[in-house]
Amino acid sequence: MFGLFKRDPKKKLQQDYERKLQAAMEASRNGDMRANATLTEEADALLAEIEQLKKDGK
Fold first, then answer.
1. Residue 24, Cβ density class (10 Å: 0-12 exposed, 13-18 middle, ≥19 buried)
2. Cβ neighbours of 49 (radius 10 Å)
3. What is the torsion angle, in degrees rounded to the nearest 10, for the CA atoms of residue 41, residue 34, residue 31 and residue 45?
4. Cα–chain-centroid distance for residue 7?
5. How confident is the model at residue 41 (pLDDT cuts 50, 70, 90)?
6. How many whole angstroms separate alpha carbon 27 and alpha carbon 9?
């Protein structure tokens, strides 16, 4: 019954993933390739977590 009020962890991870990609794109546009690479790597890690949650069925 109270599961109705739980937050979806995939939704939060998806938002974080999209923010990281946006920040990476902005860093790339500003010419900061090192920050772009770091942010893209972090976004890939978030995507892996999202995929794992989908696979686990949560």
1. buried
2. 15
3. 10
4. 16
5. very high
6. 27
User: Is the separation of the CB atoms in 47 and 28 below 8 Å?
Assistant: no
d(CA 24, CA 27) in angstroms, rounded, equals 5
Tell me the percentage of the chain whose pLDDT exceeds 90: 78
Give the E-state strand segments of the chain in sequence order: none
State the burial class of residue 54 (Cβ atoms within 10 Å of its Cβ: 0-12, 13-18, 19+).
exposed
Alpha-carbon gap, residue 20 to 39, rounded angstroms? 6
Neighbours of 25 (CB within 10 A): 13
Cβ count near 23 (within 10 Å) = 17
- Tell whether the model's pLDDT for residue 35 goes beyond 90: yes
